[in-house]
Amino acid sequence: MSDVLLPLLPTLVLAAYLFYVIFCESAKQSNSNGKNPVAPVTDKAKPAEEMTSTTVRKSKPNVAVAPAKIAQKPVELVIKTEEKPATVERVTQDMGMPDYYRNPKTDELAPVPNNYRFAKRWIKKALVEEGLLGKIYRNNEMTPSNSKKVKKALEALAKLPQYRG
């Protein structure tokens, strides 16, 4: 059954679109010509708020306003820098631990992981290369004692200047 209907699907979509364009669009155009059989006739008075807003709109004159002439004075920007603004590096050095680790080989920045499982692979390799860990631990090898080792190693890696972000 689907073998028969599947090839006909684009034709059905096209037919539905043509039906919409021919009948619905022509109905909209005929209604916009002044023939609006659906428009309700109401004898109710408008509330005071609506009347004032419509009267204000109607009472405004349609006057074209000429654009104002703008004085052409050169604008000089004066930036005084007496004190260096706080940069990310200065703030993180004050706190002791950076927000990002920087890969010295590729200059990629990676956020400091809260958990060893979420650390990027190059951070784990850097821990081993720097001698802070004996090996890269798998997720199922993370015991409480290994977790303490990893936390100390991550803090030691943050103190190394080449890995500061």
Could you explain how this protein is built, in words?
Among the domains are: about 1-35; about 90-165, no CATH class. It has six helices and two strands, in the order ααααββαα. With about 160 residues, it is mainly alpha-helical. Helix content is about 45%, strand content about 5%. It has a two-stranded antiparallel sheet. It is flat and about 80 Å long.
Secondary-structure element pattern, one letter each: HHHHEEHH
Give the low-pLDDT segments: none
Q: What's the arrangement of strands in the largest beta sheet?
A: 1-2
Q: From the helix content, strand content and strand pairing, which structural class follows?
A: mainly alpha
Which value, in Å, is the CA radius of gyration?
36 Å
Could you give a short account of the major beta sheet?
2 strands, antiparallel
Instruction: Output the number of helix runs.
Output: 6
* Total strands: 2
The coarse silhouette is flat
Proportion in helices: 40-55%
Percentage beta strand? under 5%
Mean pLDDT: 74
Distance between the termini: 62 Å
Would you spell out the secondary-structure blueprint of this structure?
Elements: H1 2-5, H2 9-32, H3 48-59, H4 88-95, E1 100-102, E2 109-111, H5 121-129, H6 144-159
Antiparallel strand pairs: 1-2
